[in-house]
Amino acid sequence: MNNADILMGTNLSKRFDNLEVVKDVSLTVKEGEFVSLVGKSGCGKTTLLSLLSGLEKPTKGKVILNNKDITGASEDELALFRRDHVGFIFQSFNLIPTLSAWENVALPLFPIKMTGEQRSRRAHDLLNQMEMGHRIEHLPGALSGGEKQRVAIARALINNPKIVFADEPTGNLDSVTGEAIMAILNELHKKKGMTMLMVTHAEELAASADRVIRMKDGEVIA
Ligand SMILES: Nc1ncnc2c1ncn2[C@@H]1O[C@H](COP(=O)(O)OP(=O)(O)OP(=O)(O)O)[C@@H](O)[C@H]1O
Ligand SMILES: [Mg+2]
Predict the structure, then answer these.
(1) Does residue 41 have its Cβ closer than 6 Å to ligand 1?
(2) Which of 38, 100, 147, 198 could bridge across to 166 with cysteines, CB 3.0–4.6 Å?
(3) What are the tens digits of pLDDT across the range 169-200?
């Protein structure tokens, strides 16, 4: 593994029952790189992202993330590892409806030793950076889709992750709102050097990445 490689998947396969959804995929992401993963619906993008981010275990193959071989890790170890090193952004936002915007953002900090004041300040700072300072006390149900995704991005960044995994982050948004969210992600990459692996099936979104990985029927084709 090269020093600058932050993520390396080797010969990854994933089988559900009799269906091989990811087939012998190897790929590497370098620190600071923005990689997009494209392909038709059902080709295995979300599954591959889950393998690479430690959400699911591969049937075969190996994942090294942030210099740690996570393939053999227990579920508890993986949960801790994800909390400390990885940020996630999902198509469906995955906010907790009974918590305010800032409480959603601060949630990943709760297992960490920190005062309530420190947690709150950090969540408020990130929401301000996402231009959400005026919606800090709102519940997710009172936010628009674009606002929900800004909250979700702030939550993904709360632990200063080394890498952010995004699965169709604009998939539930209209095109104008989607462009605004992409602009935020591009800026995080360009100005803060954030490493990002983003799944999309929109070619025009994929094009803004440093590199595009194409999948078809569970395999990487380019
Ligand atoms: N937990 C599971 N159990 C069984 N089959 C699954 C499971 N998860 C995914 N699959 C199957 O694996 C295939 C790939 O699914 P995946 O969600 O990775 O595709 P995708 O490329 O992300 O598609 P989309 O663009 O629609 O999100 C699909 O045929 C799906 O039905
Ligand atoms: Mg998917």
Answers:
(1) yes
(2) 198
(3) 999 999 999 999 999 999 999 999 999 999 99
Does 86 sit in the ligand 1 pocket, CB within 6 Å? no
- Sequence letter at residue 9: G
Q: Find the angle CA(15)-CA(201)-CA(179) to the nearest 5 degrees.
A: 140
25 lines ligand 1 (CB under 6 A): no
Average pLDDT over residues 27-31: 97
Alpha helices (runs of H) in the chain, residue ranges in sequence order: 45-52, 75-85, 101-106, 116-129, 145-157, 175-192, 203-206
Q: What is the pLDDT of residues 103-118, one digit of tens each?
A: 999 999 987 888 999 9
Q: Is the CB of 22 under 6 A from ligand 1?
A: no
Of all protein residues, the one whose alpha carbon is nearest to atom 9 of ligand 1 is 47
What ranges do the domains of the chain cover? 32-39+74-220
Instruction: Supply the CATH classification number for the domain 32-39+74-220.
Output: 3.40.50.300
Q: How far is the CA of 16 from the centre of ligand 1 (A)?
A: 9
Q: What is the pLDDT of residue 161?
A: 94
